[in-house]
Amino acid sequence: MPDPKSLIASNIKDKELVSVRRQELVNAAVELFVRKGFHKTTVREIAREFGMSMGTLYDYIRTKEDILFLVCDHISKSVSDKLQSTLTGKKDPAENLRNAIRDYFTIIDEIEDYTLLLYQETKSLNREERKYVLDAENGLVDIFEGIITQGIKEKIFHIDKETARLLAHNIMVEGQMWAFRRWALRKNFTLKQYIKLQTDLITKALR
Amino acid sequence: MPDPKSLIASNIKDKELVSVRRQELVNAAVELFVRKGFHKTTVREIAREFGMSMGTLYDYIRTKEDILFLVCDHISKSVSDKLQSTLTGKKDPAENLRNAIRDYFTIIDEIEDYTLLLYQETKSLNREERKYVLDAENGLVDIFEGIITQGIKEKIFHIDKETARLLAHNIMVEGQMWAFRRWALRKNFTLKQYIKLQTDLITKALR
Amino acid sequence: MPDPKSLIASNIKDKELVSVRRQELVNAAVELFVRKGFHKTTVREIAREFGMSMGTLYDYIRTKEDILFLVCDHISKSVSDKLQSTLTGKKDPAENLRNAIRDYFTIIDEIEDYTLLLYQETKSLNREERKYVLDAENGLVDIFEGIITQGIKEKIFHIDKETARLLAHNIMVEGQMWAFRRWALRKNFTLKQYIKLQTDLITKALR
Amino acid sequence: MPDPKSLIASNIKDKELVSVRRQELVNAAVELFVRKGFHKTTVREIAREFGMSMGTLYDYIRTKEDILFLVCDHISKSVSDKLQSTLTGKKDPAENLRNAIRDYFTIIDEIEDYTLLLYQETKSLNREERKYVLDAENGLVDIFEGIITQGIKEKIFHIDKETARLLAHNIMVEGQMWAFRRWALRKNFTLKQYIKLQTDLITKALR
DNA sequence: TATGAATGAGACTTCATTCAT
DNA sequence: TATGAATGAAGTCTCATTCAT
Description:
4 copies of one chain form a homotetramer. By secondary structure, chain A is an all-alpha fold.
């Protein structure tokens, strides 16, 4: 998989600089997008937050949508990286799954605003860019599915392969819903409770 | 709860006419929003599809966002109404739940595009309008929660009250994810399979 | 041949109004284009001269190039119309030719600035639009060729058919060069002299 | 006549280097101008084609228009030089004229694109620069006029002095029209035919 | 009540030119 | 002398909303 960022043309020759500046750009844009949404944020505002002129901003991207892509890609990668780094090669699939769920939900909680953004604005990306982001998502589903499948092999979990895939999807969505249904869930649960209850439900379903 | 539509001012005195026209307006707008998204649809396009002039359109609403609200409210109500109408007062909570899940998922599948729209554009509503839509959502959660609670009372389901609320949320989201993760789920499951597998997982969790 | 103006989309429904306003638009733009050239004239300037807002201007056209097309088409039609109206069905081809040359050169002289504009900016039109303008030009060539051909038939002119076509082109270009080489020709000739000398040269070539 | 190129200031001291680089610059720019027109070609593109940085490019010129002037001057000089080099001091003015016409038209045909460019973009030059280019043109007119005048003196051609000047202009324009009316002329004539027919017409006019 | 032409602010984007390194 | 990142003014175009008829 080629680096998605190389999809985006730039006038600047110094690749290193492009990389650094784009990171700064993402940092500037993400806050605005979270606060106002992609469509209601103007490029001028982003440039101001970016601390550079409009012209300079456009030396690093070609269109406003490129910025959205950089932002979405960043968030998406960020979740993947964080989750990957917490995954240990523990032996017990049951414990592995519990830990993965806990870590994933915790990450979501930490970057709740970003999750929401990724969730709501991905549709504004073009085909190719959207595919990148969704592929990253799929990578996460694969992780959960892998753990469950291991448990099935070891006869610890008692569901079939198809259900394993579905359950992996469910876990992903249950993580995300902690962000996008916060208005309702926060009234009833703390993160800790939420993790515990969801984990219990999943565990029971695996018996 | 006051009729949400009365939130939106109108120049027209004849309440009956307002109601009829707004329904036509919603029908015109919803197709466009589904196809192009709210932000990329222009009021001019809506007026054309609506078969009325810009001026007349603005006799029934005040801002473009009002249209979005009418649309979201309509979709949201539509799901509630359909689901309510299939709910029977059967005695067995287990069967009631199975039926409700099946009916809800089926409704989602039927109006998949609308669900997606509701899902992605609600954020563009203002505080007050968004609250309306989310309240309607909550009504659905209550329905599922009610069935589960009944099962708990009858000692058929073995989970606590808090988990019941959470499970109700889960069911809602699992219905919606059939729409918003269709790009992934459709590869692996038909609607029928999806309903069966999710129902099984929920059933196991209730034991 | 469909009316070229119908090639250009408009937001305005009243066809009559579109026609009137476009004429006003052409009048506003042509002066600016003559003075500053197409590229150096801004749409804002055109709107100001047009006496309407930018938005309104763009209700009558879609792009800046549309304005250029309207202008070029107008000039081109204008020359054709004027020439056509002076053409009499006189019997003597020699006299007909002399008159046509005189009238054509005189028209060019009258709208010298416009001729120059047409001449220099046609290249900025897109394929289809350029074709329209060039086709109109060809119509004029045909007129001159027709007169010459008639003279050949009547054994008054002694050149072959191919040369007749070429000579028709020459006459066209000799008319235009009165505009685009004015910096040189005006030093040596008045319009009257120019017409006489060119007519004499052509007449001798026809012997 | 001072060297036109000295009109354009340069940061670089080494006159020799300036001259060499400017020639390379012209070569780079002319292709782009032919393909896209002056206004639609960006300085960045020219620099890239030139193989130098923006900064370096601007060491050799002051404004984008300077480049256009260098290009126009180059083309204009190029035609003059080529034509001069073919002119022989033959004795017979009639043959001299035929040869000059043939050579001139042939040169035009060879650098048709450049002729067109010169023709269409001269207007974008400023007063002073445009004068340079037009003066070079006049030099060519003088050449043709000279040959004709010689013929008049030798009683071979039978037209007056004023007509001689006009005819010289006509010849120039008839050469150029082979380029700028190619869309029409190429349908009917090859270069060879075109030369022959135009030469015949001119010859007849001289009798 | 209905029409649709008119508004004008503001959106995104480009690009000739400069200047610190 | 050479580089190329940075500038910022200006360009074209859009569109939600209004109001005279």
